[in-house]
Amino acid sequence: MPLRPLSFLTALLHAYIGLRLLPALYALSPATAWLMLVALIGSAATIPLPFVGLRASRPPLHDAWRWIGLLCMGWFSSLFVLTLARDAGLLLAWAAQWAGAVVDWPTAQRWSTVAVPLLASTASLIGFFNARRTARVLRVDVPIAGLPRALIGFSIVQLSDIHVGPTIKRGYIQRIVDAANKLEADAIAITGDLVDGSVAELREHIAPLAGLRARHGTFVVTGNHEYYAGAHAWIAELRRLGLRVLLNEHVLLGARGAKGAQTDEEVGATTLVLAGVTDFTAVHFDASQASDPHAALVGAPEAATTRVLLAHQPRSAPAALEAGFQLQISGHTHGGQFFPWNLFVPLQQPFVAGLHRLKGMWVYTSRGTGYWGPPKRFGAPSEITLLRLVAA
Q1: Signal peptide span per the entry (predicted)?
Q2: What range does the domain containing 54 cover?
Q3: Pairwise CA distance, residues 135 & 206, whole Å
C-alpha cells in the first residue's frame, strides 16, 4: 500500500481507538487519559516511518526511527484488536441487559477500558522478549516410507524467515549461526525471506552466514522478500559467501560413510536428492524464475527416491507432491507471528506451522527463525529446526 493511504488509514484507526477508550479513561483518571492520547498520536505518527524511502530513490530513515515505528505497530495491532473485542463484549452486555439481565454497565465500561491498553502493552512486552531472544532448537523426526538404511538419521537444520533488516542485525545473525553449528547437521537449509533491504545496506549484517557449518554445506531458496529487495543481487551475494542457492535445481547428498556409489542400486541406497525452488510468486518479478518443482528434478537419478524439496511457501506443496517429493520444507507463515493473525494464515496457505501430511508427502512449515515488521512474537515462538529423517 502507498505510504499516504497507509498513514491515513492508521490515523483513522487510532482515532477510532481514542473515541472508544478515552472518555471512559478520562472519567477514571484525566492524567491517564492524556497520557493515552499522547501515545495514540505518537503511534499514528510513527507507524509509517519504517516504510519511508523503501520504494523511493532516497535512503530509508535512520534505523532508530524505524525501530520506534515498528514497536508502535506491534502495540497498535494488539490495541486495535482488543478494542474491537471490548466493543463486541459491550454489545453482548447491552443485549443481555436489554433482555432483562442485570449488568453493572458503568463498571463494565470503566474496567474494560483499563484492560485494553494494559493487555496490549503486556502482550507487546512479552512479544518483544520472545522475538529478540535466540530462537529455540525444535527437533522433529520425519518418518519416510522406504527410507534406505544409510539415510536413517540424515539431519537438516532449517533456518527460515530471518528478515535481516532495520531491527535484525549482525549480532542477531551470529547467535543463530552459533546455535545452528552446534547441531552438527548433514545439511543446513535456509528457506527464504532472509533479508529486508538491499545488498549495500545489509551486506555487513548478513556476513556471519558464511560461518554456517554442515557436512554437505548450506543451501538457500528465495522467498518473496528477496524479490522485493532485489533477488539477483542477493543471489550473487549469497553465492559469494559460499552458500548454494538452488533455483529450480537439485544436488545429490550422500549418506554418512558412503564411498561413492556406482550402480543404480548403490545410488538409491546412499543418496538423498535435495532440491530447491524459487518462491511461489517469483514469476511476478522475473518470468525466468517461475517456481517449478518438476524442473528442480531434471537429471536426478531415478534410483535416488529419497527426495526433499526446499520451497519458501507451503502452497508449493501440491506441485511438489505431483513431482514426486517425499518431504517439503517451507516457511513464510511465521506461524502467524502473534495472535490473532495466526487465525488468518489459513486463508492463504494450506499449512500454518509444524509437520503435516499431504497425501503421500510430508510438509514441514517453520514458524520462522526471526520475525517480520514489529519485533513481536506472541503465541508463535521462533525456531531453529532440526529435521531428522527416520524410517516410517
Answers
A1: none
A2: 3-132
A3: 17
